Every structure is written in C-alpha cells, then in structure tokens.
Amino acid sequence: MKQQSAIALSVCILFITVIAAGCGESSTTAATQSLTVFAAAGTTAPMTEIAEVYRAGTGVQVRLNLAASSTLAKQIEAGAEADVYISADTQWMEYLDQRSLIQPGSRRDLLGNSLVLIVPADSAATVELTSGTDFGKFFAGRLSIGDPEHVPVGKYAKEALSSLGFWDQIKDRAVLAPDVKSALRFVEAGEAGAGIVYGTDAITSKKIRILAAFPENTHRKIVFSAALTVKSRKEAGAFFEFLCGDRGCEIFRRFGYRLLEE
C-alpha cells in the first residue's frame, strides 16, 4: 500500500512538473509575441491604429511608448528596451545614430508634416503670418509651444517665429510644453490663447481651429524618421516593414501625414 502511495505521489509530482514547464514555455512564447515602439507623441493617433491592425493580423502585441522625441532618445541612450524608434525630427535620430544605438542602414526618413497656428474654436482672431505683422496683438494670453530646447515641434516653432521676426515679440508670453500633445491641450483647455502644433495634431481636435499654416520656408523641413534599434529583436523586422510599407503608410496618410517618397 505504501509502495502504491509512493508511486502515486511520484506520478503527481511528475505531472505538476510537466504542467509547470508547459506554462513556463507558454509564458515565454507569449513574451516573444510583443514588440516595443518608442514613437514621437505627434504620431499617437496613427501609431495606435497601426499597432492594433498589426496585432489583429499577426497576434503580435505592439506596446507604444509615446513622448517627445528627445525624451525617448534619452531613454534609449540610458538602456531602455525598444525595438523601433520614431522621431519627429532628424536631429534626435542622428543623436542615436552617432552613439551606435540604431541598426546601421535601417533608418528611413518617412513622413512630412505642416506647422500650424491654432486658437480656441470660439476665437474670432485673425492674423497674417508675414514679416512686419504685430504678432503679439492678435490673441490674448499665452502662446503654447513645445520647449525649443529639446522638443522638435518647439524647435520648428521658434525657427518659424524667428524667421518672421515674431520671436522677440512673443518669447516672454510662451508657455513651454513637454511635447506637442501638451501644447495642443493648453489651447483646448483655454490656458493659452494660441499655440503652434503639427497640422496632423490640429485636425484631431474639435476644441481648436487652425488659424494659419506657417510657410515652409520659415523653418527646417519637418521630417519624421523611423529606425530599428540595436536592441531590436528579429521579430521587429517584420513590423518595421509593415510600418514603412503600403498599409502603414496608408494609415499615416489618412491621418494627414505627407509621405516623403511622394
């Protein structure tokens, strides 16, 4: 009887061990079926859709870390695990490239955008974006822009304002946001009388209206770049091709982006 009990106990232990091993294998498999994408905050809407479409088609979960390009680049430099990096300007992509943190030959300058001046939807303000305009008089309160020291949309904004002779008029009234989404929210909430954001962000909100678009010759060309990081897993290659391929580009186009190849 004791011998039978011992045999039964051994079988139970073996069964539990097999089940545990199987669960561990399942957990490991599940873990490999996910990717992490560090993407500029301005790409929130299209990247959310791209991640969902890719998950639905492949079963691979795409986790998004959305923030200012500079913040993301610094996180990658500090060792954060990212498979793909999408920057809202070329400077931060070059920052990582110079530090050998993106895969050689993987970088693609993919998307273009516009820079627009926005006001609350109920504002009656009008303005001409030409040199000699008294820019500071067309709206009351603060001007919401990304921080020009490190946020791409803020850099473009300062360049455009400086080119037109507006920066000295307005710099003391600028509220500096940590990313483009925050710059948009300040205007939506009425905490700023005007703001400067990407055209693709402006069209997502019914709480603001676009007052004018800055001429392209007033700032550097807006370029969104994508690349695989040196830590990217082999599964990331397929997602990267999807992102930069016809389906991904169609989604970006629908959200108002301009494809640089076109």
Outline the structure in words:
The protein is of the alpha/beta class. It has two domains: 33-112 and 222-259, Periplasmic binding protein-like II (D-Maltodextrin-Binding Protein, domain 2, 3-Layer(aba) Sandwich), CATH 3.40.190.10; 115-218, Periplasmic binding protein-like II (D-Maltodextrin-Binding Protein, domain 2, 3-Layer(aba) Sandwich). It has helices at residues 2-32, 44-58, 69-77, 90-98, 152-163, 167-170, 180-188, 199-202, 236-244, 246-254, and strands at 34-40, 61-67, 84-87, 108-112, 115-120, 143-146, 174-177, 194-198, 208-213, 223-228, 258-259. Helix 2 (44-58) runs antiparallel to helix 10 and helix 3 (69-77) packs parallel to helix 4 (90-98).
Topology:
Elements: H1 2-32, E1 34-40, H2 44-58, E2 61-67, H3 69-77, E3 84-87, H4 90-98, E4 108-112, E5 115-120, E6 143-146, H5 152-163, H6 167-170, E7 174-177, H7 180-188, E8 194-198, H8 199-202, E9 208-213, E10 223-228, H9 236-244, H10 246-254, E11 258-259
Parallel strand pairs: 1-2, 1-3, 6-7, 6-8
Antiparallel strand pairs: 3-10, 4-10, 4-11, 5-8, 5-9
Distance between the first and last residues' Cα:
81 Å
CATH superfamily of the largest domain: Periplasmic binding protein-like II
Anisotropy-based shape:
elongated
Helical element count?
Answer: 10
| Unreliable sequence segments | 1-31
* Second rung of CATH, namely the architecture of the largest domain: 3-Layer(aba) Sandwich
Largest sheet: 6 strands, mixed
Helix percent reads: 40-55%
Q: What is the H/E string? A: HEHEHEHEEEHHEHEHEEHHE
